[in-house]
Amino acid sequence: MRRIKNNLATNVNEKITRKEYAAFGSSTAVSKAATALSGALGGLVASTYMGLSDSAFATYSTIIFILGFWDIANDVIVSSFLDKTRKTFGNWGRFKPWLMLMLIPCNLVVILQTAPLKAWFPDISDTFKVTYLVLLYFLNDAFSTFYNAALTALNARRTANNMERGYLVAIESILSSTIGGCGTYIAAILPYILPNASEAGRYFYSYSIITIAAIPLTIWNIVVTKERIAEPPKADAPKLREVYKQIIQNKPLMMYMISEIFGHGMSVGYGLMTYAFIVAFKNEPFTLTFFRDTAIQFEYVYDGENFMALLSVASLASLVTTGLSLFLAPIIRKWVDDKILYMCTRLGTGICYTAMFISVFPFSAHTPAQIFIRIVIWYAIHGLTTGFYQTIPNLIQMASYDYAEYKFGDRNEATVSSLKNTLSRILGNCTTYATNLFLIYVGYTAYAETPELMPTESKASLVYLFAICPAIFCYLAVIPMFFYKLSGKKHKKITDELNERRQKNLDEINRIEEEKASAEA
Questions:
Q1: What fold is seen in the domain 10-520?
Q2: pTM given for the model
Q3: Rounded alpha-carbon distances, angstroms, from residue 320 to 58, 146, 308, 311, 313
Q4: What is the pLDDT of residues 353-396, one digit of tens each?
Q5: Domain residues of the chain, as ranges?
């Protein structure tokens, strides 16, 4: 096997600086803003804003579904390249150059994916639109795989300190929840900021501005990042089959990944949330009374059309409870093991969505206002588990990296991350494909611009699926974690021993560098 030389890493015991925290936080904030807006409106691009016919939408969905399996080969190639080709670029290390190289292409492709072709070029054929979307999907997948695999590997090496890992995850979680909720607020006020633009145009312009603003902050984050986990100065680059053998033998990692794959199925419900709000509320005026019969009673009159305003109310309700759970997560995990918190979070989320389904069934027996209030109540209660879910899984994944290093001497974060993402994408593609076919089956695409004409049964189906799918996948995600054994004192013992190894590796690297410098002098 080929001999490799690792880059010089920072002392394993050096604390993360305020500058690093600031760079990480600001970069994450803008990135989360783009993700939030994409989550609020992104799913409408192909299904609504492109003006595709039912047959064209079905063709597009089928092609994307098939292309999703390209991820299997794509992720294997990219992750193997990053983990096996351990060439360093001076003080930039192994991963930063790939992040810098992929940053602009990734953002450019995503912006082009949001272009409102129907509004700008009304005479363009369905064939061109489908070809355009499929090509950009392929490019986005190729670029983002490199970027995300390298970023995951770099983030995992920022610190070996479990508390600092918790702080970084907490920062990302707080920003994700706070700004994530703002995605619907941004969408709700866009008609007032850009009154002359179409709904699709507003999304394109706002997303482009946020994405462009993220680029310099992301560069700053990459530049100031330090690696604190030192590998041996000379090591054998493992063959790909050996890497996958190690992954399979890493039982804590496998249990966590299986659980996360099931959990990814929750995206079916999240993806349908916007559609459920469109068909249930877009053209249904009603009045909501808050704090009835009290001195602070007030009313909200919803006149239809701007369904994003209702999504904003739902997000605001969950934002408060999510903030509370984010505050409690780092405190409670001092006494409760991450594994237990993870399982309780999944179970609690499943219960909330099950209760949401029960409370709105049957759909025809409730007014739109009653349905909205019941969805918001359970969505808000779900926020009590969101903060824990945004904090704990990343820490469990990093613990599994530590276990791999402890047992095999190799971390291989890029391969592990890509494998997990590949499996998640496969399930995601299956669920997205099924969701798109379901939209066609219930007639959503035919009624996208006139949801008030959609049959009540079709509206009910969308609302039910939005509630019940996350519940099912949450319950499934709990099962594998019963077999996850890396927690508590066992993980602490492994971490302590690893830090001793890492310091020895760093001392050996410094000794070699000093000998080289003396020889050159």
A1: Growth Hormone; Chain: A; (1.20.1250)
A2: 0.62
A3: 39, 36, 19, 15, 11
A4: 999 999 999 998 898 888 988 988 888 898 888 878 777 887 88
A5: 10-520
